[in-house]
Amino acid sequence: ESDTASEISFQFNRHKKTPSIGSHSSDMASVSSVSGSVLSVYSGDFGSVDAQGTVEFALDYDEKNREFQVHVSQCKDLAVVDEKKGRSDPYVKTYLLPDKARMGKRKTSVKKRTVNPIYNEVLRYKIEKMVLLIQKLNLSVWHNDPLGRNSFLGEIEIDLASWDWSNRKLNWYPLKPRSLSAVNGVDHRGVMSLSIKYVPPGSLGKWPKNPPSGEVHIWVKDVKDLLQLRPSGADSFVKCYVLPDTSKKSYQKTRVIKRDTNPVFNHTIVYDGFHTEDLKDACVELTVWDHEKLTNHFLGGIRLGLGTGLSYGISVDWMDSTQEEVAFWQEMMLAANEWIEGLLPLRSL
After folding, report:
1. CATH architecture for the domain at 190-346
2. Where's the C2 domain (predicted)?
């Protein structure tokens, strides 16, 4: 966790075999189904129906127990998902944004075969009031599908800083279409300054072969304008994985920079074991986290790769690099042994 270079061996094998003792090898097929670090708020099939109807709920904060409470009462006139059967099986899901990774989701039970479900359930979050007031509540309604293709039925988003906390009554709110800013990840989470370099096998000397395998160098310089989850700023650090490997062998991190929303890390990580063709199927995931004793809060991240949706012929959701991230990775692939500098926006992963 120092500011000097850290190095890790990362061997890619395309054929199943038993790795030798002490080897850093990993079978790609066995881990390629691993998803990214953080799931999207919009994890499901949300293109099938238009949002309609209303939801009744109330908000309260229990000062004694330091608990935020969302009393979900009922919904009316929801969209019908299965038109042939005239059926929807709705449930309500909540997130606190932007801190969804820390708090996780809360959801009600599923009410079957109704567009007017009654819940009368309380969704609870243990959270300090001071932290809560810099969050937004995202409350969404979904149709539950047994095969996991849940359909988005509508949502409402509330800025808790401007909420009237004396209002504890149940009120009706119209459900709206999904938030394009959240879906497209254009909410501002900060900007990371970094450089990357690929060193092909044997490119630094003929004898002995130097390096014996390819290397990817990642120089994390700094981050500007991080999300601030507390008045004192952020205690941030950066995690790094080379996907599809999410094992400890792939995991690296920087030291924690305290009380700073513009942290300077100046930390270099080196992954060896790369063949040039592996660059098309691997993805470097860099995520920024706010450190606390009990848990870490996700602040934003980037994924460097070709963004094809495939890794070694297998469909994966983490191969989702933006155009900027893809261009950055491609430039590295085309300029062996050269540092490529970039300034990339952090996003929801």
Report:
1. Sandwich (2.60)
2. 51-173, 188-319
